[in-house]
Amino acid sequence: VTFASSRRRRKPPQHGTGRVLPAGDFVGAVDIGATKTLVSVVASPLESWSETIEIRRFATPARAEDLVTIVTEALAELSQGLTVGAIGVAAPGPLDVASGRLLHSPNQAWRAVPLGSELAEAARAPVVLDDDANLGALGEATLGAGKGKSPVAYLTLSTGIGAGIIVDGRLVRGGHGTAGEVGHLVVNPTGPQCGCGGRGHVESYAGGAGLARRARLVWPTGRLTSDPAIPAPTDADGILRAARGGEPDARRLAAEATDALSFALAAIGAILDPGVIVIGGSLGLRQPSLVRAAAARARKRVMAETRPGLTIVPAALGPLSALAGAAILASEGDMVEATVRP
Ligand SMILES: [Zn+2]
Fold this sequence. Notes:
Elements: E1 26-32, E2 36-43, E3 55-59, H1 64-79, E4 84-91, E5 95-96, E6 101-105, E7 110-113, H2 115-123, E8 127-131, H3 132-143, E9 152-157, E10 161-167, E11 170-171, H4 202-206, H5 208-218, H6 236-244, H7 248-272, E12 276-280, H8 282-286, H9 288-301, E13 312-314, H10 321-331
Parallel strand pairs: 1-4, 4-8, 9-12, 12-13
Antiparallel strand pairs: 1-2, 2-3, 5-6, 6-7, 9-10, 10-11
The structure holds zinc ion (ZN).
């Protein structure tokens, strides 16, 4: 196993309420995605993300108990007897950071899963959790495209849409833990249903799940209206491909997705005046032309003074932003609001 940086100790970091994470030379990092889970063990503090860092990847299991088992085994294999001081976990929101519970996950039938305490018990190490948008932001602001900039907004464009905000190196979680939920910004109060129960939210137009729902409504027969001989697209990538090919319904859906995303970017620009907006998430990384079109539209519509805040760049850590953020969260106790101990 090769690690990114040399082993060295520093003062055990403290977080806001005075609790201290144990000083360990290594930390575990876990990123639980809707389909894939990544696990790694890295030197603490993590000073750069290197391609030599070993990552275990597996399909996210349907049962939360299986997830704890697989993650614990992967951490044990990767650490090879080294002491892991703490484990940082990026999880799909919403979650209760204080108790380490995943409240629900749209892709797994998980309800109030006490992942933090179960993983802490199984792996015999303290566990800190946060949502993937927040940890993607922490990863990019510390080691990626947001390094040296403040504030940093990280927009994850994937099955859903969310943002993490870092101001002067610190994660802004908000008064109730929901800061940065730009996916649920209303762009049309009579628009399509959102996964959260609301209507016309950014995510219902531009998120992967929202676009798949729109495809089912626009092409209920599964065939193009413009040419019933051709199967209709069923997901975001298919819709955007058909739109580029000139299919009229797909062009409308793509234009509305671009518009919705441009409103989210404009809102981030107007409220935060960020040093940079970093775009990540599987859809955001795969479809840079959608992001570029939305950014251009946002810049055209905001007031001139907001435009410098709309500097939009792809995630430098690619699909590993949240995994890096999980490692940083585990290392830097001053970021941590709550630690679940074994
Ligand atoms: Zn919503």
